[in-house]
Each structure stands twice: as C-alpha cells, then as structure tokens.
Write a structure and sequence with these properties.
heterodimer; A: mainly alpha; MetI-like fold; two-stranded antiparallel sheet; globular; B: alpha+beta; D-Maltodextrin-Binding Protein, domain 2; 2 domains; five-stranded mixed sheet
C-alpha cells in the first residue's frame, strides 16, 4: 500500500535530464524528418495537384480537372494491360516468395556448422545493386548464350527463349523475385528463434510429431511475421520496376509492362508528368485497399500471443 | 590537451552535423551565373552559351573529338564560353527533364528525331528558320533536304551527323561461296527483296554446332529504318497529315509477312537470344550480313571485324516502288528562349556544319554525309566503299517523325514482337496497331 501511494505521488512532469534527452532525440531524428517533409511529403502533395493537370515539367501546367483519371479508367489500354501484368505478378510472386522465404528460414534455423555463413549468403542478394542483379539475370536467361539454356541443353532438355516469350517472361520475373527473399528470411529467422522452446517441449511430451509441432506451434506463432512480410511483400511487388526496365523494357509484346514501368514511361519518356501523377495515385489507392483488406482479414488468422 | 568525447557528446555532435548537412543540401540551388563564376574563373567576361550535350564517355575517339572541337571553338571565339552539361544516351531525356526541372536552362540541346515532337510540344525548342534568315553567312538553300529536321514546314534541326543506311555483308564468306555480291547484283539490277531473302537463306547454316545467321534483321524494328523498307514497297506508316495510320495497308501487310519469314525460318537471331557481351552480330561473324547506317564503321573497327573478314557494302535493294536509303540524323536543337543567342548560334553553326567539325568528328566514324553542300563527305577507313556511298546519296530520304512518336513506339514494339513470334496473323496484328495508332494521334 505504501509503495503504491509513493508511486502515485511521483510527479508526471519529466525531469531536466529526461527533457534534455527528449530534445536530443528530436534533434537526432530531425535530418530524417526534414528529408521526409521536403523530399517525400512535398512531392507527394505536389503530385496530387499535378494529377489534375497536363504537366510536362518542361513547361507550365494546364488544369484538366478529372480528365487524367477519366482517361485512365476510360480508353487507356496500356493502363489495363499494365495493371493485369502487375496483378498477375503480385498474385504469383508474393505467395511463392513468402513460402520460399519461410522454407529457407526454417533451414537456416537448424544449427549446423557454418550456419552463419549460409545466413550471410542468403542475405547477400538483398544488398546487391538491383541493376547488377537484373543484368545478371538477363544474361542467365539469354536464349543463345544463357547459362540456364546451357544446363538444359547439357541434360538433353528443350531450351527456351526465356526473355522473348510472352507466356514465360512474367514467370521469369517471379523466379528473379526469389533472389530478393533475404529480407523476409531474416525476419522469419528472428521470429523462429523467438518461439518459446517450452511449447515444443510440452508438445513433444504430449506425443506431437515434427509435422504436428510445426503445424500447431511454429506456424501459429509465426503468423504475425507472415502477415508483416505479406503486407510488405504486396506493397513492394506492386511496385516492380527495375528488372522490367533493365532486361525487357516492358516487352515482349508488352508482357512485362508492369504498372510502375508504364508510370515511369509516361513521366520520363512521354513527358506526361500530370498523367503519371494520376497513375501513381491510382496505384496508391489500389495498394491502400489491399493493405486495409489484409489488416481486416488479419484478425481471422494472425495469432498475437500478447492478446491471449 | 585532448579530451575524450563521451558517447552522448559524440552522438549530439553527429546529430548536429547531420542536421547541418541536410539543411545545406536543402538550400537554394546556385544560379548558373554564380556557377560560371566558380567553374569558369577565366571566363568571367565572356558571353556564355549553355549546351546540354551527349556524353560519349567510353567512345574514346568521340571524347578526343569533343576536346579538339572545344579547343577550336574557344580559339576562334575568344569572347564566347560554352558550358556543357552532358548525359549518356541511356536515360538522356530523363536527365534533361530532371535538369530543367532543377532550374537549368539550355540554349542548345543535343537532339534525336524521336524526341522532336516532345520538345516542340513542350516549348523546349524553337525553329531555326529566323536564325538562318538573319545570318548573312548561310542560307537555307545551302543545305541538303535530307539534312533538315522539319515539322510543319519549320526547321528545327540541321543535322551534324548524317548516316545513310546500307547493307553490310561478309565479303570473304560471299567470295568463298562463289556467290554474286549484293553490290554486283545492285549494279546489274538484280538486287531486289527476293534476292535479299535468298541471300539470308543461302548463308544461314550451322558451323561447329553454332548457328550462323544469314542476316541480322533486328534494326528493321526501328520505325525510321522500317520506313525505308516501306517506301520501297510503296507505303508508309502514316497518312501525310499524320491523322491516320496506314499500318493495315496491303503493302505494309505484305512487307511484314516478308520480314516475318526471316524470323519464322530462323534466318535472323531472335530478340532476347544474345547478351550484350556476346551479341549475335555481324562484327563477330555470327551473322553474315546486317543493315546499319554509316556510323556502323565505328562498331566494325571497335569490334575488330576487318581483322576477321573483308567488309562488303551495298545499297538497300529495289522494292516494288523503288529504292531508298533512310538518312539517320543527329541534330542539335535550339532553345525557344535562348539566353545568349550569339554564342549559342555560333556554337550551333560551328558544331553542326563547319568544315572544322566535319574534319574533327570524322574520326568517330567514316562516311558521313555533310548537311551543307559546301562541305565534302568524310571517309576514314580504307575498306569503306565510296562507290556505294555515292550510290545511296541520290536515294537518301528523311523519316518524318509522327506526333506522339515516343508513346506510339510502345504499340509498335508490341506489334513487332507479335509478328516475330507469329502469335497471330499479321493482318490481325496490323489491324490492331492501325486502330491503336489512329486513336493515339487523334486523342
């Protein structure tokens, strides 16, 4: 009782040291906040206005009202095509990449000799420059000289012109996506190491086999991280760009004309910055809808230990 | 006396430095005038022209030529200074756009025909006609018609680099096979589109398990190069006023079917088949012939092809409606609102069509045609066939850029890919392309 009373008498106003620390903290984050305000929020707000104009950067903007948006949802065939290509890629790439990342994390959580080296190797592609990766993939899948076809030829299997077959090109980009799973792997790995051992021990005592422990302990305990990676994965995958820009330039037959590449073309190749801004906001809304939907659905399948 | 910094002090100082740097980075950009004061210390009194130029880094001869030309210009015009901002070819327009968005203003801009409508539409560049008329040293008649980039009667570019397109073939292989050379066929009037296709068929083979292609057709995908074939077949991509696409015309359909044979029969490498470091190209002997402009002499030399085989050259063959060669142009464009007209125009003239420029820039590749009648054509390499150059000179023609050219090419490329892959009948592909194209220019 005395302790509780004493606690209640502690003044809520922070002391001089805490106030100093708070100011220092604000100072430390100031560069980032300034950068965010100037380089992110500023252009974002400007792009809202640009999206209602005909604007090329090179000359002044002309107010168009909703014309850009009307065209996007009206007669812009390439908008529909790029959206289709992007949805196709997102729905195929995100689940497969998540599954692969989870699988790799499980393997990397096994304590074997040199495990730290393996973990580093799996993360390396994440810090490899995207352009270098794209060029490397382009060479691997080259029709005549590519290593992939060389291997297929060696084992007597048919070869393909991987980067010039519209039926295959999007799948190639999905495969390339595996190259960047290192970030998700690290998150999964951290999560796997935080699953309480006691749960596995208790389940083992009750006679649960490996699959049962995985299914009823590992997966439920990992659902917050699966959810986290899913949300980030979808947001990131909707913005797929570098590979398509470097390797295929949207071809063949526009089969890899992804949404952001089309947006980029409008802004920097066709000098239609106003239209590109409108496209950017449409993408923002699409991603927002997906994210909110996931947040709502998360209640049905994501298990937060702290809530129980 | 040294005092050790505590972690807290270190962090605080680092934070302050970071904040200072960020604020400095966000400070207003220095004006071009002040930039000149710093970077062109010796040129304070000079009148400055601002040029957004091509960055030829990696093409040594070009870099040397640029240096020589600047030296020549500054000697001839001691009162003028030129400030050049340079960008590589890849992403050139993106860099120009962001540079202008950042407050830079340019008097002269390195150009490319595909960008012309964009630059005009956005008031980046203006016509040269008034400058030419006001200049007592030149007149519009001094220039060859094929050297002018004109839109609706206004001249926006007088090409500094004119490259006529022609056939390049492996003369050694042709001679070894006892085959009549395309040049000889042209002289005897037998060089037509059937002969071209037959040449590709006859020289497509396997050598030590490696496919050797009879002809590299990839450049025909370029709309300006395709136009040359279309003229020979009696058609073009657009109606004269650019209000309707002619891509579904009978002639275009027939021509696309003719081109498709090269891909379907494996006479030419498929797109995506090679890598930048190992191209299926003419210069390394993987293709027996190719089409390119005279600029290709540079690639031939760089890749060492003359050490591997003799180079043959021939004009493009005669089609049902004649024989043409497209003039590939590179021009400088002039700002619509130049800051200092005199130094900018002096630079433009000297760089584009002076005898000095023709002499200095000859080293980047031979056989260029001049834009001005008073300047002689330059030939650099001994193996260049000047007879062929003379043969294509009268049939040179310039491709007219359509409005919304950059945007249109997205549709063109997609249709071309479909033709190459044979996913649909050519009539259907071109029907859709014509519809998309007409919609685009009328939108």
């Amino acid at each position: 009782m005395a302790l509780r009373a004493a606690r209640n008498t502690i003044p809520t106003r922070p002391g001089p040291l805490a106030r100093k620390e708070a100011w220092e903290g604000r100072l430390y984050i100031l560069p980032w906040v300034l950068g965010f305000l100037i380089f992110t929020i500023g252009p974002m707000l400007a792009s809202v206005i640009f999206s209602f104009t005909k604007y090329s950067v090179l000359s002044g903007a002309d107010w168009l009202g909703l014309a850009n948006y009307t065209r996007i949802f009206g007669d812009d065939r390439l908008f529909r095509l790029s959206l289709y290509n992007t949805f196709y890629f997102v729905f195929l790439s995100v689940p497969l990449s998540l599954f692969a990342a989870f699988l790799v994390a499980l393997l990397l959580s096994v304590q074997v000799r040199g495990i730290n080296l393996y973990r580093t190797l799996y993360y390396l592609p994440v810090i490899t420059p995207a352009v270098a990766s794209a060029l490397t993939w382009g060479m691997l899948f080259s029709g005549d000289y590519g290593l992939v076809n060389a291997v297929l030829r060696t084992v007597g299997l048919p070869t393909f012109n991987w980067l010039f077959d519209p039926k295959i090109t999007k799948l190639i980009f999905v495969i390339m996506g595996f190259w960047g799973i290192g970030g998700s792997v690290i998150i999964f790995l951290a999560g796997l190491q935080n699953v309480p051992r006691v749960l596995y021990e208790a389940a083992s005592i009750d006679g649960a086999n490996l699959w049962y422990r995985f299914r009823h302990i590992t997966v439920p305990m990992m659902t917050p991280l699966i959810f986290f990676n899913l949300v980030l994965g979808i947001i990131g995958t909707f913005q797929v760009f570098t590979g398509a820009y470097i390797i295929t330039a949207g071809g063949p037959a526009n089969s890899t004309l992804f949404y952001v590449l089309y947006l980029y073309n409008n802004a920097f190749r066709f000098f239609k910055m106003g239209y590109a801004s409108a496209l950017a906001w449409v993408l923002f809304v699409i991603i927002l809808i997906f994210t909110i939907t996931q947040l709502r659905m998360a209640r049905l399948w994501v298990f937060y230990e702290a809530e129980r | 006396m040294h005092r050790k910094l505590s972690r807290r002090e270190f962090m605080r100082n680092a934070g302050l430095i970071g904040t200072g740097l960020t604020l400095a980075a966000c400070a207003p950009v220095a004006s071009q005038d002040s930039m000149d004061g710093e970077t062109q210390a010796g040129n304070r009194e000079k009148v400055v022209a601002y040029v957004f130029d091509y960055d030829p880094t990696g093409t040594d001869a070009w870099v040397v030529a640029d240096e020589e030309f600047i030296e020549y210009f500054t000697e001839k015009y001691p009162d003028y200074a030129v400030v050049r901002e340079q960008a590589p070819w890849t992403g050139f327009t993106e860099k120009l756009l962001t540079s202008i968005a950042g407050g830079s203003k340019y008097d002269v801009i390195y150009g490319y025909w595909q960008w012309l409508p964009l630059f005009i539409e956005n008031d980046v560049i203006g016509p040269l006609d008034d400058l030419i008329d006001a200049d007592p040293t030149i007149s519009a008649d001094d220039f060859f018609g094929y050297a002018k980039e004109t839109v609706e009667g206004d001249t926006y570019g007088l090409a500094w680099f004119i490259s006529g397109w022609l056939h390049w073939y492996n003369l050694t292989a042709v001679n070894e096979a006892g085959y009549t050379t395309p040049k000889a066929m042209n002289e005897s009037g037998e060089w037509d589109y059937d002969a071209w296709l037959q040449f590709a068929k006859d020289f497509t083979r396997e050598q030590d398990g490696v496919p050797i292609y009879g002809y590299s057709m990839s450049s025909a995908r370029s709309v300006s190069v395709y136009a040359m074939l279309a003229w020979a077949w009696g058609t073009q991509q657009w109606s004269d006023d650019f209000s309707a696409s002619l891509m579904d015309s009978e002639e275009n359909i027939a021509l696309w079917k003719w081109i498709q044979q090269f891909y379907i029969d494996g006479l030419t490498p498929l797109p995506g088949a090679s890598t930048p470091d190992q191209p299926l190209s003419f210069t390394n002997g993987r293709s027996m012939a190719t089409m390119a402009g005279q600029w290709y002499t540079r690639n031939i030399v760089q890749d060492g092809a003359p050490d591997l085989f003799d180079i043959g050259m021939a004009p493009f063959p005669k089609g049902p409606s004649g024989q043409y060669s497209v003039a590939a142009l590179n021009s400088f464009y002039f700002s619509k609102n130049p800051g200092n007209v005199d130094p900018a125009w002096a630079w433009y003239k000297e760089r584009s069509f002076s005898e000095a420029a023709a002499r200095i820039y000859a080293q980047i590749g031979g056989g260029r045609f001049p834009s001005i009648k008073s300047v002689a054509p330059a030939t650099v390499y001994s193996w260049e066939d000047t007879e062929v150059y003379e043969a294509i000179r009268p049939i040179l023609r310039t491709y007219s850029t359509s409005p919304k050219e950059s945007e249109w090419i997205t549709f063109w490329d997609a249709a071309w890919d479909e033709m190459v892959l044979g996913t649909r009948p050519v009539e259907e592909i071109l029907g859709q392309l014509a519809e998309e194209s007409t919609d685009l220019v009328n939108a």
